[in-house]
Amino acid sequence: MTEEQLLVPTKTYLKSGIHIGTKFQTKYMEQFIYKTRPDGLSVLNLQKIDERIQIMINFLSHYAPDEILIVSRRENGWKPVKLLAELTGIKVYAGRYPPGIMTNPNLKHYTEVKILVVTDSWVDRNAVNEAMKVGIPVIALCDTNNQANNLDLIVPCNNKGKKSLGLLFYILTKNYLKNRGLIEKESDFKKTIGDFTEE
Fold it and tell me: Which of 8, 107, 192, 194 is the most buried (most CB within 10 A)?
C-alpha cells in the first residue's frame, strides 16, 4: 500500500504508537498482528489498522451525529472523544457509563442511537451489552488482548495510549466531517493531532 492511500503518513502512525500492542494475544486478534518484538510486545499490522479505520469512517459517515454514541471509560480517551463531540455533535460518554442509557426510556439521559463505538470492548462492556439488547451494531477499538465477542467491527489499535487514541479520533473527526459535507476540504479542518492528544 502506498503512502498516499493511507489516512495519515506511516511516520505519524508510528510516532503515536498506534501499532504497539500488549504482551498478551487473543486468538481473534492474531490476524492483525504483524510480529512479536524481542521484549514480548505484539506489533499490529499498520495496513490493517488503516484499513479498519477507513471502514469505520465510511460506516459512521452514513449516520447523523445524533444517531451515534461513543463511549470511553479509559481516561486517555476522554480528551479526544470530548473534542470529537464538540466538533461533530456526536454523543459521547467519557468516564463511567451510566447503566440503562440505551435500554431504559424512563431515565433522564435515555438515548436512542443506531450505532455504538467503544474505545475498549472489555472496559466498556456494559455499553456493549446494552447495544446488544437493543440490537444496534458495535464498533470497538481492540488491542491484542481483547476478545471479539458481540462486536460487529473490530478496529485493531493500541487502545490504551493517549497519543494513539488522540490520533485515531483526530482521523475519525476530520474524515467524518468531510464525508458528511460539513467541511469541504481537509485544509478547512483547523484542529491538529496535538489538540486531540496534548493536555
Answer: 8
Residue-wise over 125-142: b if at least 16 C-beta within 10 A, else e?
Answer: bbbbebbbeeebebbbbb
Residue 187 has pLDDT above 80, yes or no: yes
pTM of structure:
0.95
CATH number at residue 72: 3.40.50.10490
Candidates 56, 50, 57, 43; CA nearest to 1 is 50
The answer to whether residue 192 scores a pLDDT higher than 90 is: yes
Q: Are strands 115-118 and 138-142 parallel, antiparallel or unpaired?
A: parallel
Q: How confident is the model at residue 47 (pLDDT cuts 50, 70, 90)?
A: very high
Contact assessment for residue 87 and residue 110, using Cβ atoms and an 8 Å cutoff: no
Distance CA 38, CA 41 (A): 7
For residue 119, give the C-alpha cell. Answer: 474505545
- pLDDT > 90? residue 21: yes
- Separation between Cα atoms, residue 120 and residue 142, nearest integer Å: 6
Number of structural domains found in the chain: 1
Give the residue numbers spanning the domain of 182.
Answer: 7-197
Question: What angle (nearest 5°) sits at the alpha carbon of residue 141, between those of residues 31 and 25?
Answer: 40
Residue 45 is assigned to a structural domain of this protein: yes
- Output the average pLDDT for the chain: 94
